């Protein structure tokens, strides 16, 4: 099956009360682990590429790795640009064959966010590509933006109708308390999401697909393995999975997961070296990392997203 856009995927997800996982990819092993999991669970997938990933792997390599994933499976797969910083970044991804882009102009004033997003939508729609935009600001570190917790702000539901009508965007990322990275809450702080905002957004935009960034759960068993085998990740805390499951039954159709993949890979590789200090063939430890990614993604698909058997 060729690459698809997320249009049909999101329609089905909205109606079915589940979400599609958007997994960040940087290398071959991660792509293979994600796609093998998607194939075995018969789940649609979004493979997303950040500016940092494009810089690390070279856009040409990533594009061909994703195309190889598509060629070897029969599940619907979207190739999505994560956190496009400006029109040029989105244009470059669209010209390269991405089927979906995110324009992240959420740190600009409302009117400017609309203008920038509108320009990307016009270019993308003319070429059959869909656009995710963002309203509100998450805390945490992304490639281009480092938002301090005190500068983060929740999405104002009163703004969502004007924003989506004026921009024509296809999906909307909102800020309800998730954040990027592996340290989402302070120790002792109770993880919380503003479901009241999500509910209000859902009422104002019936049927419109909502996106959650910063939605890793930072599995504590994996953090413990990292710490046991020489790592140092004190107080890494994510979003409880049951909260994501609940969001997926509401208007959330796309859930972004990157940090959990990183944690799973790192735990597998640290454990591998601790148990096999004599190993030096990258296929041995990267093979373990790939298997860990696959196991994690299967768990997400079945227990968190609910997207199994929906391909
Ligand atoms: O939200 C950002 C993603 O986690 C991508 O991270 O920019 O380090 O590739 P990155
Ligand atoms: P996490 O850091 O929670 O995995 O978020 C990833 C993300 O939002 C990518 O855009
Ligand atoms: Zn993000």
| Helix-strand category | alpha/beta
Output the helix-strand order: HEHEHHEHEHEEEHEHEHHEHH
Q: What is the averaged pLDDT score? A: 96
What are the bound molecules? glyceraldehyde-3-phosphate, 1,3-dihydroxyacetonephosphate, zinc ion
Whole-angstrom Rg = 18 Å
Q: What does the oligomeric state look like here?
A: single chain
Count of helices? 12
Outline the secondary-structure elements.
Blueprint: H1 7-16, E1 20-24, H2 28-41, E2 45-49, H3 51-57, H4 59-71, E3 77-84, H5 87-95, E4 100-103, H6 110-126, E5 130-135, E6 140-141, E7 146-147, H7 160-167, E8 171-174, H8 195-204, E9 210-212, H9 220-228, H10 241-249, E10 252-257, H11 259-275, H12 282-305
Parallel strand pairs: 1-2, 1-10, 2-3, 3-4, 4-5, 5-8, 8-9, 9-10
Antiparallel strand pairs: 6-7
Helix pairs in contact: 2-4, 2-12, 3-4, 5-6, 9-11, 11-12
The structure holds glyceraldehyde-3-phosphate (G3H), 1,3-dihydroxyacetonephosphate and zinc ion.
Glyceraldehyde-3-phosphate binds at residues 24, 50, 52-53, 82-83, 142-143, 180, 258.
